[in-house]
Design brief:
This protein is of the alpha/beta class. About 45% of the residues lie in helices and about 10% in strands. Strands 3-2-1-4-5 form a five-stranded parallel beta sheet, sandwiched between helices.
Length: about 210
Amino acid sequence: MRTRKQIIWRRCTIAVVAIALLPLLARAAAQLLVVHTPVSNADAIVVMSGSATFRERARHAAALYNEGRAPRIILTNDHLRSSWSPEQQRNPYYYERTQDELRRAGVPDEKIAVIMVPITGTYDEAVLLKAYSETNQLRSLLVVTSAYHSRRAFWTFRRVFQGSGKSIAIDPAGPGLETPSAGTWWLHRLGWQMVPNEYLKMLFYWLRY
């Protein structure tokens, strides 16, 4: 029969091991959400809406454009307004903020298209972009989103575009600018909003779509 001292020692050992494993498990959970499918070129780069991470998505999309990976960039409209802009004296929509970031990174205005139909989520975006690609005869899309959103986004696009004959690839923006890194997300409030919530959203999508 174990003594009280042995029981306490065992519990302390378990606690220490759990604490030591937590960062490794947290990193693995974040990395599992990241999907990257390399592609040399596409008909268009799609920047998915995301108010909390619009800068990192826009800058990554601009880098891909400047590398010659696609001749145009398409934005969607989540119909959300950003913070006050002293220059414009108003609260611009996030797609406008994204346009500004793209311009600053060297993407010409005429190479940026905005689908103005408001969307409310990833599935809506995929459905809208499928219709847009059919109307504009786009055979391939390179999707840019945040790293932790990439697995659900890629799954959704493949689901929606299944049987269309169109090619879908995804190249997410790496963490760092607005998204916490895989190794430290659990130390940030935004990280808790992104990683655990993303698993809940994935489950919802699998059950619904």
